[in-house]
Each structure stands twice: as C-alpha cells, then as structure tokens.
Amino acid sequence: MSDSEDSGIFKISADLVPPAVIKPAGISEVDFDGLLSPPLKLHEDLKNGCGGQLWPAGMLLSKYMLRKHRDDLVGKEILELGAGGGLVGLAVALGCKTSTKIHITDQEPMFDLMKRNISLNNLDSKSEATIYDWGTPTPANLPSHPDIILAADCVYFEPAFPLLQETLKDLIGENTVCYFCFKKRRRADLHFMKVAKKLFDVKEIEDDPDKAKYSRESLFLYKITSKSR
C-alpha cells in the first residue's frame, strides 16, 4: 500500500467520525435549585481550557456551602483553588455572609475569565482573582493559611496530583478547613485521596441532603483539615 493510499484511507475514516461537540461560549445563570436569588451569572468559555465551563463537583460544592455555611463565614479568609471561571467562590461571595474578599485562583489561562465573571456579578468589592500555579510559592496577596479552602473538580489530571498535594500542604494550617469535591473518573482519582489521608485528616461529609443521589454519580465531598488540628 502506498503512502498516498494509506493517507486516503485514514482521511475517509476520520471523515466518518463525528466531531466532538464543543459547548459554545456564553453566559449561564445558575440559582442552585433555588438557593441563590438573584442567580449567579457565569460566562463559560472553553477556548483556554476545560476549566471554562460548569462541572458537577462545582455545582455540588456550591450548593453545600449555600445550604450549610450561608451565615457562618463572617471574618473567614476564603480561597478557591482551581476555580476555572470562579463558580464556587463567586456563589459563596454572592449568597453567603462574608466580610473579607474571597480569593478565586487558577492558572494564567483562566485569569481573564475569572475577572470577567467577578465583574459580571458586580462582585469586585467581595472577590479577587489571582494566578496561582500549584506547587509554587503562595502568591503574596493570598492568605498563607486561609480559614476556608474551596476545591471542586481539581482531581482530573494525574501528573498534577503531587503539585496539588504540595499546595494543600502549604495552605492548610492548624485552623484551616478545606472543602474538597470531585467526580471519580478513573482509579487514580481515588489514589489521590489515599495519599491525602496520609497527609491530612480527611472525613467524608455526611450531612448533605443530596448525598445519596450524588454518590450514585461517583461524586465525593470531603472535609480536609490538618492532622494536628
């Protein structure tokens, strides 16, 4: 078979495969099943990475915070890791009582999207976007040991697991509580939690009324604290 014939066969085969559906960029309004009024406006855009859209773990963690921590976050330093467009942090900023700026963080490709969503919801006085690469020193404008860490769908890329673990070790202080939510997509995801349990005190959250439902969808919600707490 000649190279040209071979190329032709593969071209035909590729033509027969339907292209992946890419969600178009646009603004979504999310009220988390009536928990947030007015709803959060979120510009979704995948052009700079998969963090630019809504994911199930982010929806779950947002709903949990709105249900269980709407009134007890005053005076707390709050930081979101791997925020993407800022779903969880901005839901908390919009729907919970807070008194300090919420720091939403991600890598540089998500920076403009985070800032756009802050402005879209008029939350410039209540939240701030920061570029934060896992495994690097904590940026100077962020609290060294925040009271609350929010992390949703941060477990999806296995090579980044050690970097995320290092960042959690940097950030989790004696009084820090990290709410950590993810969807299990592969066996390695649970290995991340196995390592986390050696480093921290890790407890699965049991008081969420949706737990039976989301457990069937391989979603997990944990509270992570320092072993010395």
TrEMBL record:
Its main location: cytoplasm. It is found in: Cytoplasm. S-adenosyl-L-methionine binds at W55, G82, A83, G84, D106, W134, A152. Its EC number is 2.1.1.-. It is an enzyme of class 2 (transferase). GO terms for cellular component: cytosol. Keywords: Cytoplasm, Methyltransferase, S-adenosyl-L-methionine, Transferase. It comes from the Eukaryota. One of its GO terms (molecular function) is protein-lysine N-methyltransferase activity. InterPro entries: EFM6, Methyltransf_16, SAM-dependent_MTases_sf. It holds the Pfam family Methyltransf_16. GO terms for biological process: methylation. PANTHER family: HEPATOCELLULAR CARCINOMA-ASSOCIATED ANTIGEN (PTHR14614), PROTEIN-LYSINE N-METHYLTRANSFERASE EFM6 (PTHR14614:SF152). HAMAP family: Methyltr_EFM6. S-adenosyl-L-methionine-dependent protein-lysine N-methyltransferase that methylates elongation factor 1-alpha. Belongs to the class I-like SAM-binding methyltransferase superfamily. METTL21 family. EFM6 subfamily. This is Protein-lysine N-methyltransferase EFM6. It comes from Corynespora cassiicola Philippines. The lineage of its organism: Eukaryota, Fungi, Dikarya, Ascomycota, Pezizomycotina.
